[in-house]
Amino acid sequence: MTKESKKKYNRLMEKAEELFMKVGYKRISMDELAAAAGISKMTIYKHFSSKEALFTEVLIQMIERHFAVIAAETEKIPTSTEKIEYMLDYTIKNVENYSIHLYKDLMDLPYVMEAIIKYKGKKLEETWRAIIREGIEKGEIRPIDIEFAASFFNHLQYSLHNLIMKHEDKGIKWIVANVYDLIKYGILRK
């Protein structure tokens, strides 16, 4: 890729992410994406076979950035319980960056949703597995089935998407905060 081509690609990815996050997938056309990036629609099609392919790549790059931040931050955190708290808080803080339109549009794009959940799920399970294993080794977490626990936290993303659709009037942050409150504190009195 030439230097100029790389610049156009980067500008496209930046503008596509900005617009997809703000208005969702369905409410933006390829013409609007091209105009926002200051490139031709033909240039977009040189890199991506469809708007769906562009959308998927934007989401994958976002996931990569999020997990780079998570890895760097959890490395600095001394205890596994604080790392778990960080992971839960990170989701609550970042979930507000995405419009309800984005979540709805993802639900209507099963192939994209499946690809993203699979990609994100692999990274999420690796992260949870490492945190839980470390916690057990340090005696900070009781001995539990690491694979099951990592899978549980990964599968929460499915539930979160469904809960967001069902309770969208409450707001995304409210939904995620309540789910994580149940995880952290349970429902039974001590």
TrEMBL record:
Q: Which UniProt keywords apply?
A: DNA-binding, Transcription, Transcription regulation
Annotated DNA-binding ranges come to 29-48
Q: Name one GO molecular function term.
A: DNA binding
Stretches assigned to the HTH tetR-type domain: 6-66
Check the record and name the InterPro entries matching this protein: Homeodomain-like_sf, HTH-type_Tx_Regulator, HTH_TetR, Tet_transcr_reg_TetR-rel_C_sf
Has the keyword Transcription been applied to this entry?
A: yes
Looking at the UniProt entry, the stretches that span the membrane are none
Biological processes, Gene Ontology terms: negative regulation of DNA-templated transcription
Q: Which residues form the signal peptide?
A: none
Domain of life of the source: Bacteria
Question: Keyword S-adenosyl-L-methionine: yes or no?
Answer: no
Task: Write the protein's name.
Answer: Transcriptional regulator, TetR family
Q: Species name for this entry?
A: Geosporobacter subterraneus DSM 17957
